Amino acid sequence: MITKHNISSLFEFVKNQKKSNNLGVDLINKSFVLSQHSKIADISIDKYKVVFNCKIEKKIKEIGQILLPILMLKKKFYIGQIGQSLDGKIALLNGNSHYINDKNSISYLHSLRSICDAVVVGVNTIRKDDPLLTTRAIKGPNPQRIIIDPSLKLTNKYKVFKDGMPNIIFTHSKLNKKFNNTQIYQLPERNFTNLIYQNINRLGYKFVLVEGGSKTISKFLENGLLNIMQFIIAPTIIGSGINSINIEPITNLKNVIRTKNNIFKFGKEIIVSLEF
Ligand SMILES: NC(=O)c1ccc[n+]([C@@H]2O[C@H](COP(=O)([O-])OP(=O)(O)OC[C@H]3O[C@@H](n4cnc5c(N)ncnc54)[C@H](OP(=O)(O)O)[C@@H]3O)[C@@H](O)[C@H]2O)c1
Mind listing the domains of the chain with CATH numbers? Predict the structure, then answer.
């Protein structure tokens, strides 16, 4: 039975084994082995489709069907995610954002974190949500936390500086501030987003989740640095609030971002996954 407690071993297995476009996986003694006969394997994964011939929790099956093909196809990726209402809002005007998506989306987000080596967030997300950025809902490996804090506004009072796990901060501030368990990288302000991207690559992180918030994702998107952008859409209308994406205005509809996409039903919500 595949559950939230072992789905991350399956992700890890597929990440390490993706030699062909069609992968058959057998579950033997609760560990995953590559099958010679992919058609009768417990799990078979081809380019865009995953078939489970074994018992699996419904929610976990939906997560696997979205994430396993990505792991099969990509040698490295930057994946952006944003949870939003139908009308594209991630928070009310007063900043309240708990919760726009339903409980299932937590397992999905933690699964996304578990397939990544690093997770990137902006300083406002740390200040407003005080997140841990771990995978505790599915018990997977935790990604390296990377925080973009250009003016070093943060202090040690946030949870990420208290749990003993490491952090990286990218800044262009010259302040001599210290944070617990944190390596600070000072970068020039000019071309900051691209320099962050180059430094993340230089540090060896291949699978990177750009988790939010809106400003951070928008910067990566408009600089063309995302390979995949996923919108987790709750069937709600907020009316006015904070937009999920804020990029420079365009003057011609020919120039909208329109790209290859996959749409998945996920519980009572939908996930729209754009590929660049
Ligand atoms: N729904 C979701 O999936 C989701 C996920 C995460 C967060 N959130 C929500 O998003 C909200 C925060 O979003 P936000 O857009 O206000 O903030 P944010 O993206 O968390 O942080 C933005 C700030 O980070 C710095 N920054 C990030 N990337 C940068 C870049 N490439 N270049 C320069 N500066 C950069 C800037 O700091 P300075 O202003 O100091 O220059 C910027 O103002 C919170 O309410 C949180 O709850 C929602």
Answer: 7-71 (no CATH), 76-275 (3.40.430.10)
